[in-house]
Structure to design on (490 residues):
């Protein structure tokens, strides 16, 4: 009897699998204080934050400023990048609920224009687009480095010569083109442009007055542009060329994202459709239909998705057990992960903890190192060029080719990046945005190598020319002297 009582008490102390961790009370003042500390420590110029619980908006605010210096408010539209995938998935699921689309039927049945060079593409289903198991991948179709389309129709049309990386339904591969095809499917089935569909069926019904979706980087308003953080300084720069509608084109504000978060648990879709959207594929237990499934550091189950542009980032997260929803947008690029880091801190606040503030701007030491190397490289190039004549007296042609190796590396940086990133596609200028001070040093080293090589080669040519000239003069003088001696002897 005593043994059974002790056992019962012991089991009562063990949290059950459905146990909800204690949730802290999140006040707007605490959120403001954390975001402000973060900005002061990192130099983040602008951010927007939305926090909801159930059907209530806990907090929605803007912080800092846009690239033009305008104050960031709760109504300032910002880019949400790949968070857009959850909007595209929702649009498809609305068509599913209306009986116009079936998830497990081939895409081509709804979108005849979707053709690829690979015949296996005919078997790609709508679900496989949304859970990223279609077989399309960066390694087989270079969606970023190829000429960019202007419309969703163009995004699908350029697939006509593309191959698949794997058979449909066999491999999970995160690939933006999946969602561009899905958005085009929405256009064709609904009979209206994708932006018009989202406006009529999602944004207006939810009261998201400041939200829209765009096609390319050229359509970004000033408020949705961003910065690179170099040596602790936020430098406004245009987003590199790219197409993103369907996969990353949504613009939204803190206030609108609060409405979006509330709608995830408030009837925008049926409960069955919501479960479908949050059920991971059998090939990847973390990716569902436009959402990732994961846990907080404390083990609380969450549904989330991040978004990265080269000049801004975003993140959204739902905590189903507590009813919390959070969204963050930051106007610095993916290298710095400000939206994700802010989200981690806000989740800590929600769960009753105390978030840590970074000690300083991201990569400040790395930037300082490569800046110093760049200046040293310029100094060495000047010195090497000035001493090229002296160098030519002691060295030969075979010492020149190694100086051109940095130039070769600079030209081949994109395939090297793709190899290191397991086949990810990227443009050269996008690598510059990811690693600005490293690429500055590499480009400077490449230019320095070319300049010094040219100077030394010129010096070697001049020295060789003079040597040949001197040899010719010496031979001519020797012959003349012999002739004079011969005449004298005669």
């Amino acid at each position: 009897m005593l043994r059974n009582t002790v056992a019962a008490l012991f089991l009562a102390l063990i949290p059950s699998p459905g146990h909800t961790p204690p949730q802290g009370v999140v006040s707007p003042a605490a959120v403001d204080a954390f975001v402000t500390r973060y900005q002061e420590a990192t130099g983040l110029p602008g951010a927007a934050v939305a926090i909801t619980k159930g059907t209530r908006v806990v907090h929605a605010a803007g912080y800092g400023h846009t690239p033009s210096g305008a104050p960031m408010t709760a109504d300032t539209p910002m880019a949400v990048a790949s968070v857009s995938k959850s909007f595209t998935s929702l649009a498809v699921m609305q068509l599913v609920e209306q009986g116009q689309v079936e998830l497990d039927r081939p895409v081509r049945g709804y979108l005849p224009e979707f053709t690829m060079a690979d015949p296996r593409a005919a078997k790609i289903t709508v679900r496989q687009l949304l859970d990223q198991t279609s077989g399309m991948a960066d390694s087989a179709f270079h969606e970023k480095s190829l000429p960019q389309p202007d419309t969703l129709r163009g995004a699908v049309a350029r697939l006509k010569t593309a191959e698949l990386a794997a058979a449909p339904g066999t491999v999970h591969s995160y690939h933006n083109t999946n969602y561009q095809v899905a958005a085009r499917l929405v256009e064709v089935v609904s009979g209206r442009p994708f932006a018009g569909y989202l406006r009529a069926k999602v944004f207006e019904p939810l009261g998201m007055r400041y939200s829209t979706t765009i096609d390319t980087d050229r359509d970004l308003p000033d408020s949705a542009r961003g910065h690179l953080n170099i040596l602790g300084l936020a430098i406004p720069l245009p987003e590199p060329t790219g197409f993103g509608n369907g996969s990353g084109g949504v613009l939204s504000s803190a206030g609108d994202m609060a409405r979006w978060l509330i709608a995830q648990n408030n009837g925008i879709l049926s409960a069955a459709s919501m479960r479908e959207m949050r059920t991971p594929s059998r090939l990847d237990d973390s990716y569902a239909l436009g959402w990732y499934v994961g846990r907080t550091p404390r083990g609380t189950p969450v549904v989330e998705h991040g978004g990265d542009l080269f000049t801004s980032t975003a993140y959204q997260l739902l905590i189903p057990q507590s009813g919390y929803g959070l969204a963050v947008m930051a106007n610095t690029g993916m290298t710095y992960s400000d939206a994700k880091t802010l989200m981690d801190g806000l989740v800590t606040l929600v769960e009753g903890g105390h978030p840590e503030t970074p000690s300083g701007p991201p990569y400040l030491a790395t930037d300082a190192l490569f800046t110093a190397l760049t200046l040293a490289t310029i100094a060495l190039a000047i010195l090497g060029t000035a001493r090229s004549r002296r160098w030519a007296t002691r060295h030969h042609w075979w010492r020149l080719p190694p100086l051109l190796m940095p130039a070769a590396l600079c030209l081949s940086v994109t395939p090297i990046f793709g190899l290191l990133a397991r086949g990810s596609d990227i443009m050269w200028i996008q690598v510059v945005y990811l690693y600005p001070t490293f690429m500055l040093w590499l480009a400077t080293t490449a230019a320095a190598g070319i300049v010094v090589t040219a100077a030394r080669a010129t010096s070697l040519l001049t020295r060789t020319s003079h040597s040949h000239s001197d040899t010719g003069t010496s031979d001519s003088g020797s012959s003349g002297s012999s002739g004079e001696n011969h005449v004298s002897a005669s």
About this structure: Residues 436-489 form the longest helix (54 residues). Residues 200 and 206 are 10 Å apart (CA to CA). The chain has two domains: 17-350, 364-466. DSSP finds 16 helices and eleven strands in the chain.
